[in-house]
Amino acid sequence: MLDEIIIMREKGISFRKIAKELGTTVGKVQYQWVKYQRVLESGSVEIAAAETITEKKNTDVRVGRVKKKAALTSGKQSRRPIVEDLTITYSTGSRIYCYWTVSREWVNHLKDRFNMDVESPFVLRLYDITSIIFNGHNHHSYSDSFVPSSECDWFINGLKENRSYCMDLGMRAPSGEFIAIKRSNVIHTPRTALDTEYHSLKELKEFEQGRMKEPKWVEHVSTYSYYVMEQEDKA
User: Fold this and answer.
1) Average pLDDT for residues 172-183, to the nearest whole number?
2) CA 20 to 30 Å from 200, out of 49, 58, 65, 153?
3) Is 136 in contact with 220 (CB distance < 8 Å)?
4) CATH number assigned to the domain comprising residue 218
5) What's the CA gap between 233 and 157, in Å, rounded?
6) What is the domain range of residue 227?
7) Which InterPro entries does the entry link to (predicted)?
């Protein structure tokens, strides 16, 4: 199955179409692809026990290392360019699986540029951006999870129902500044009750009548190389 995923990804086919073609889920396709990319980058396969760490920032959040499975191998083992990326997807209704690709050279550059310790961890900053055109600062709240910089994927629990979230992957400078490296896609958590209103009907009518240029409930995010968030910009 991995060989088929590799061939289709090289043709530019999306994870969703690959999953449909192979009769599996998007999450399983993404999981195998990111593991394959990690093998190409490191040249080795690591098997480690699952671990759970608890961090608290604004809200209770449980984070944990993904249980390492023996990665599937392929005849195509030549090294290829790694595109920096951060993706979040569902694991369960209140838990997400996030994975990323960031070059070791880029991480070392940031640590040197901001005088960080060599063991400085990644920071996964999860924003609640429900009904917001997000500019990086106007979130409802956020929570930080600290992850060893040797990791490339993680689980995060504690999401609330009927909310919209996105994530920044970054690092914390000695001064306390948050240096964001990459921003993820947006996910929308499901409703748990049928009587829960997903979007404001007033805003929907205003959009349909042309009084709004874009629907407020569709969150927009931008990507970037990195930026520094000053202390006063934090929630």
Assistant:
1) 92
2) 58
3) no
4) 2.60.40.10
5) 25
6) 48-233
7) DUF4912
